[in-house]
From TrEMBL:
Protein name: Beta-galactosidase
Pfam families recorded: BetaGal_ABD_1, BetaGal_gal-bd, Glyco_hydro_35
Stored Gene3D superfamilies: Galactose-binding domain-like, Glycosidases
Keywords: Glycosidase, Hydrolase
Source organism phylogeny: Bacteria, Bacillati, Bacillota, Bacilli, Lactobacillales
Catalytic activity: Hydrolysis of terminal non-reducing beta-D-galactose residues in beta-D-galactosides
Claim: Methyltransferase is one of the keywords in the record: no
Organism: Lapidilactobacillus achengensis
Family: Belongs to the glycosyl hydrolase 35 family.
Ranges for domain Beta-galactosidase 1-like first all-beta: 377-487
Boundaries of every Beta-galactosidase galactose-binding domain copy: 512-568
Keyword Hydrolase: yes
EC nos: 3.2.1.23
Length: 592
């Protein structure tokens, strides 16, 4: 069997091994593209691929585990092995990664007072149950058992969150108990406070750094930290940030390719490298994270990251610059031409069905949960997407007032099935007036979870509850008697949408609406859905959630991998802002 050791250098089977690695998240790339993406990584001369593993993706409901399709991490590892790539795994409970709640599953929020990323026994018990299922799938792929996995991470940037070393030590002990034999590491920002707080160097667990510039200066700090602890390990940047993520309503962030390439060259003179990202991919579904500010800022569907390989799989100028640097530094390494993908602008398609939100929900195909008080989204289902709340109130014949308490993140208030207002950021929770004409007034509230924070002090804050956690006040009292339902846009949920009835009126709808399309093709290429004419919502193709679109930009497209297409396709668009979606236009390139 093979072995991987950490001494003064990395050693693979007794020979020095320079790690040239790139991050590729299997869960952000359609499985049909895993092999091409990993081939393009190897074509640079790289020898390793790194990936996070998001807990909330693999255990969406407590005790229910899913490792199929885009979640099939073992298949991803096997493809890497076939290409003779080594693998670094980061199966920490918390991953950050601009992913909803840093990968922590929303169902943890159903346990009042539970503290994540601590030694709270309830949290550690939940991690242990997940690890028991996870590692039985991972440990057979360790290099010690003939597989490609050479290292695994303990927690993630814990030094930027806490300094209770008993917590990451408990995680490491769980991993060892589940059969992890390869070396473990911690990854933190390269400043002394973060390293002191997050590293387990005295436990003989490798310390590596994360940064995106000034490579030699940052690695010098890491080397000094090792010396203080009488260690002389190889230096490595586990996350060299070659680009950055983006948020709704802000300009795209890009990085100059020559400057990036020069810094990589300087890094390789003194240490090993994991490039974050090699290909960023897409935040499919509702798993995008959120930056924590005074007003939390959700991240966009595209996770392009300005990486060497684009969201849609195309090598960039940054890829070519990186390839040149690797050849200059290691001319003996074989390089190849990268594989290219094909993109097509399919003909425009016309809607063949439409369904108002309230009509759909009252069709008999949706099961509401009744309660006196509104329930947070996590108590209604998976905790992602949308939740709809409804009640009826007596009409007293004059304007009434309504106020949402502890609602997150964005809410449409409907009065008698017509949108009264949409509240977000500064207006969310404001008191608004409403009135009706009947003896009773129907109140509906659609609340969207735009993404839980993935980094910082708010990870344990009550704000991570989505939906309406506090209640609804009507005329200064909390109203009781609610019906509510989660709208997660799973394949099972969209199958309950009945488009057989006559199309609604052709006027612009004054409530959220579903639109239905059929899309027949004979050839299969990647394509892009043009969202410029729409407001806000999401798109489902053949039961797969492509993610959110939003007119605030900076992106105005949704990427459609060819692997999702088939001869007869079904597309459902959910539009919340009253824009008509009578047709879908495609593009052969992304639209900004």
């Amino acid at each position: 069997m093979s072995n991987f050791e950490i001494k003064d250098q990395f050693y693979l089977n007794g020979r020095p091994f320079k790690i040239l690695s790139g991050a590729v998240h299997y869960f952000r790339i359609h499985p049909s593209q895993w092999q091409d993406t990993l081939f393009n990584l190897k074509a640079l001369g790289f020898n390793t691929v790194e990936t996070y593993l998001p807990w909330n993706l693999h255990e969406p409901q407590e005790g229910c585990f899913d490792f199929a399709g885009i979640k099939d991490v073992t298949k991803f590892i096997e493809i890497a092995d076939q290409l003779k790539l080594k693998v670094i795994l980061r199966p920490s409970p918390y991953i950050c990664a601009e992913w909803d709640w840093g990968g922590l599953p929303a169902w943890l929020l159903n346990q009042p007072g539970l503290k994540v990323r601590t030694t709270d026994p309830r949290f550690l018990a939940a991690v242990a149950a997940y690890y028991h299922e996870l590692f039985k799938r991972l440990t057979p792929y360790q290099v010690t058992q003939g597989g490609p996995v050479i290292m695994m991470q303990v927690e993630n940037e814990y030094g930027s969150y806490g300094n209770d070393h008993s917590y990451p030590r408990a995680i490491a002990e769980m991993m060892r108990a589940e059969g992890v034999e390869v070396p473990l590491f911690t990854a933190d920002g390269t400043w002394p406070e973060a390293l002191d707080s997050g590293a387990l160097i005295d436990d003989d667990i490798l310390t590596v750094g994360n940064f995106g510039s000034a490579a030699q200066e940052n690695l010098a700090v890491l080397a000094d930290f090792q010396r203080q602890h009488q260690q002389k390990w190889p230096l490595m940047c586990m996350e060299y940030w070659d680009g950055w993520f983006n948020r709704w309503g802000e300009p795209i962030i890009r990085r100059d390719a020559p400057e990036f390439a020069q810094d990589i060259k300087e890094l390789l003179e003194v240490g090993s490298l994991n490039l974050y990202m090699m290909r960023g991919g897409t935040n499919f579904g509702f798993f995008n994270g959120c930056s924590t500010r005074a007003n939390d800022l959700p991240q966009i569907t595209s996770y392009d990251y300005d990486a060497p390989i684009t969201e849609w799989g195309a090598p960039t100028a940054k890829y070519n610059a990186l390839k040149a640097v690797i050849h200059e530094c290691y001319p003996e390494l074989p390089q190849e031409q990268p594989r290219q993908r094909h993109y097509k602008q399919y003909p425009t398609i016309i809607a063949d069905g439409a369904l108002d939100l309230t009509t759909a929900l009252h069709s008999g195909h949706f099961t509401f949960k009744n309660s006196q008080e509104t329930q947070p989204m996590e108590a209604l289902g998976g905790g992602y997407g949308y939740a709809y709340y409804e009640t009826s109130v007596k009409n007293y014949g004059h304007p009434e007032k309504i106020k949402l308490v502890q609602a997150a993140d964005r809410a449409h208030i409907l009065i008698d099935n017509q949108t009264l207002t949409c509240q977000y950021h500064e207006t969310l929770g404001d008191t608004v007036e409403y009135s009706g004409t009947g003896a009773e007034i129907q109140i509906g509230i659609l609340v969207e979870n735009l993404g839980r924070v993935n980094y910082g002090p708010k990870l344990n804050a009550p704000s991570q509850h989505k939906g309406i956690a506090g209640g609804v006040m009507i005329n200064n009292h909390f109203h009781s008697g609610w019906r509510q339902v989660a709208l997660d846009f799973s394949a099972e949920m969209v199958a309950n949408l009945d488009f057989s009835a006559e199309l609604p009126n052709r006027n612009s709808p004054n409530q959220p609406r579903f639109y239905h399309f059929h899309f027949a093709i004979e050839d299969f290429s990647d394509t892009f859905i043009d969202c410029r004419a729409w407001g806000k919502g999401c798109v489902i193709i053949n039961g797969f959630n492509l993610g959110r679109y939003w007119s605030v930009g900076p992106t105005n497209y949704l990427y459609v991998p060819a692997g999702l297409l088939k001869p007869d396709n079904e597309i459902i668009v959910f539009e919340t802002e009253g824009k008509r979606v009578d047709q879908i236009d495609f593009s052969a390139k992304p639209i900004y």
